[in-house]
Specification:
By secondary structure, the chain is of the alpha+beta class. It has two domains: 157 residues, Uridine Diphospho-n-acetylenolpyruvylglucosamine Reductase, domain 3; 113 residues, CO dehydrogenase flavoprotein, C-terminal domain (Enolase-like, domain 1), CATH 3.30.390. The protein contains eleven helices and 14 strands. A hairpin with a 6-residue loop joins strand 13 and strand 14. The longest helix is centred in the C-terminal third of the chain and has 18 residues. The chain is globular and about 60 Å long.
Length: 282
Amino acid sequence: MYLRPNTLKEACDLLAERPAQILSGGTDIYPALVDRPSPEAVLDISGIDGLRGVEQGGREIRIGARTTWSELARADLPPAFDALRAAAREVGSVQIQNVATIAGNLCHASPAADGVPPLLILDAQIELASRTGLRRLPLSDFVLGNRRTARRPDEILSAVIVPRASAGGCSAFVKLGSRRYLVISIAMVAVRLAADGGSRIREAAVAVGSCSAAAQRLGALERDLVGRSWHEDLASLVTGRHLAPLSPIDDVRGSAAYRLEAARELIGRALDLCRPERAHAA
């Protein structure tokens, strides 16, 4: 059964009546059909215009669920979103970026989902719509693990919300793979740093992906970075204690030990990219 609603309300009503696989860009669904049976029902939300685009309000920035990675890469957003824009250019090929959506990336919930670490450092919230209304929850509570989310069967991810309070400073995204493009990452890091008006770090956010079942914020490292001078060797501050929340695995792309060492190196590079002189030059 193929369903193609024109409004979010119609989509929620249909989903309340029967379970269905939600389709937007289709870059995850179609490849999966090679070795899996087709879903009994498909709910195609690609015709709902209200779910696409970026709206910048006074208190929050709203990214519609159907916004593509190409659109995000070109979006006029504050420097705190530079990590997200950089990640947008790493999602598959240009052809994939033109159709793949931010909601699909989050709902697929791969440990290597490029969009998760840059959104975690922005304290992003997920808006879920259903026949009974809207609810929000932090992205860290939405992605539960490998291919697992907190979305109920009757819900549609309608938007990603970033509070203005978390959109300060500058950010960077660094990814390691076996080649430059079209690769599942071995490790990836997003960092956001905000200054106190002088030479000290007022706010720090660090997230690591591909090193645990779901991307993780490194709270201990963030706390140790606050109050540090921009002129310090920030990379030298990263220790094994800071990486403790991570739980990498051994697989064909790299060993757990290699992933941890890669994460430490990538954090250092991202911290360096966030220095004011580097960020302004970029």
